[in-house]
Every structure is written in C-alpha cells, then in structure tokens.
Amino acid sequence: MRSFTFALGLIALAGCDSSEIGPQPLDPHADGKTAVFLTDAPFPTDAITRVDVHVREIALSEAGDSTDGDLGWVVVASPARTFNLLDLQNGSTALLGEAEIPPGQYRAVRLVFEPARSTMTEADGGTIGTASGPGAPGIDWQAKGATPNLFALVEEAMAIDENGEDIVIDFDVGRSFLYDGSGVFTFIPHLRAITRSGSGAVRGTLTHAVGGGPIADGFINVHIAADSGGALGPLLATTRSGADGDFTASFLRPGRYQVVAEDLARDAVSSAVEVQVKARETADVGEMRF
Predict the structure, then answer these.
(1) Are residues 206 and 181 in the same domain?
(2) Of 243, 229, 239, 281, whose CA–CA distance to 260 is shortest?
(3) DSSP labels for 176-241?
(4) Residue 177 and residue 190 in contact, taking contact as beta carbons nearer than 8 Å
(5) Which tops the pLDDT comparison, 4 or 238?
(6) Are residues 106 and 151 in the same domain?
(7) What is the DSSP string of 130-163?
(8) What are phi and psi of 87, to 5 degrees?
(9) Which terminus, N or C, of the chain has the lesser number of Cβ atoms within 10 Å?
C-alpha cells in the first residue's frame, strides 16, 4: 500500500511551509504518495467574508453506492480542524492529512463535518451559526446528528495505483448555501472529487464591452457542453474573477464545456464560449467581453 494524503486550502493556518499553500501543479507528487485536496468555488455575495467548516474525517470507498452503509470505507484523514472555504479559490488547495490505502478504483468519497462548530462571518464581523429552528435566522444544515456525512460526486472512478495519486475535493460554496434574503441560509451540499492528474482547467479574462476595463468579482459558470446547438448543458462548477478580471476554473474532467460569465453589478451575462479541456492542461478562452 502507498501513502495517501488529503488536503484543504487552509494549510497556512496550520503553520505548514509555503510549498503546501496555494495553487498546486496538475502533476501528482513525485514521492509516490497519494494525496487528496479540498478546494471550493466562491460564495456569491460580498456580505459574507468567511465560511468556516469543521472537518472531522474523510474516507474513500471502492463501492459506488453511498446509500449502502457497508461500503468498506477507508479513513484517509481525521483533521478535526476548521477551514475557511473562501480561501480556496482558483485552484488553491492545502493538505488535510495522510494515511495508507491499497491501490484500487475508488468511486465514493465521504466527508464528516460538525455543524455546531461551523459558521459564517459577515462583513461587519458578525457570526452566523446554526439556526435555532426551521425558518429562524442562521444556517439550516438539514442534517441529523452532531457529525453528519457529506458525499462528493465522483463522475468517474478514481484510479489509485502503486505510484500514488492526488485527489481533489471541490466544495462549491456558492451553490451549497442558498440564501432566502431574510437571514436564512439553507445548506444543500455540492461536492465533487477528481484525481489531479486526470483533470484540466479553464482560464480567461472578463472585460467590459465598453472601455475594455476588467470585470472584478464576476461569476463564471462552467457547464457540461450540450449536444444541441445553443442550449446550455448542466452546471458543473463555478468560480470568480479577480480584480484584474482573470479567472481559473480548475479540476475539470477532460471534455467539452460551455463557459458563461456574469457581472452582477450590471446584471449582465456573456455569451457562452465552448472550450475543450484536456487532462493536465489549462485551456485559455481568452478575453470575454460583455
């Protein structure tokens, strides 16, 4: 068996060295260790500055049906730490833990977290915790028990061989917390898991059609390309542009995608740009003007 490592983008808070912080290369570790990383898509409001989730445990299984309780789960990390998911954007990841696992085809990923120790922080410094009841202000986790399970979508079995592999868990915060406008956030988790070596990325730049200036904090939606012309396929992932208008949507399976950008400040939406993603490569859609 080879060593297996989990990671989350807040490794800096644990005092690890800078080589473990920030965007990671698409190549797996050269030391033969298998690594798992956690990343996220940005939360869609400037009113929230932190989304802290307390992660207790992460496990893998070769069985594909997570509704079956007896899946032979292999625990690969028990960090028992709180991570700010908003620090994990544009490909940033960080190490969670390490364990020994046998080679195999892994089809299920389970993340155990603690709602009671998970919160949001507002721009004014206020803390949003678990709602006291249905419809009450706060986070409605829609989960039973103190340590509920979350299951990541595994689109294709993740092959772990004797050389090890990196696995990334993409926690899409923007789609996972639905806000009703009156202080209630409903938690509907959206997580994906993919091997780093089997994934690619898309990058580009958002600019204003008039003047050509960059569009900061624009939202980018990555859809699986539809077979019929003109129609958008299912939404797979989201990301956000920086102050310079640049964006990167990482950890995508090879295939065709449609990229659509939004500028919420102007209520403007770009045309869809189709792009082909290849493993270990970053496809450039160039400048998206709208």
Answers:
(1) no
(2) 239
(3) HEEE-SSSEEEE---EEEEESTT-EEEEEEEE-TTT--B-TT-EEEEEEPPSSTT----EEEEEE-
(4) no
(5) 238
(6) yes
(7) B-SSTTSSEEE----SSS-EEEEB-SS-EEE-TT
(8) -80, -5
(9) N
- Residue where a domain terminates, one of 195, 214, 242: 195
Are 204 and 285 in contact by the 8 Å Cβ rule? The answer is yes
pLDDT tens for each residue of 15-33: 222 223 334 444 444 445 6
Backbone angles phi, psi at 115, to 5 degrees: -60, -35
Which two structure tokens, joined as six digits, stand for 246?
Answer: 């640049």
Residue 219 structure tokens: 């939202």
Q: State which residues form the domain around 30.
A: 2-195
Higher per-residue confidence, 148 vs 38: 148
Are 252 and 133 contained in the same domain?
no
Give dist(CA 107, CA 153) in Å, integer.
9
Q: What is the pLDDT of residue 32?
A: 53
pLDDT tens digit sequence for 268-283? 999 999 999 999 999 9
Same domain, 133 and 7: yes
Is pLDDT above 60 for 125? yes
Contact 110, 35 (CB under 8 A): no
Q: Tell me what pLDDT residue 28 has.
A: 42
The residues pairing with 273 across neighbouring beta strands, listed in sequence order, are: 259
Q: Are 180 and 261 in contact, with CB atoms under 8 Å apart?
A: no
Q: Quick one: 280 and 191 in the same domain?
A: no
Ramachandran assignment for 73, one of left (phi > 0), alpha (psi -120 to 50 degrees), beta (any other): beta
CA distance 214 to 261: 13
Task: Domain count for the chain, please give it.
Answer: 2
Percent of the chain exceeding pLDDT 90 equals 55
pLDDT at 66: 60
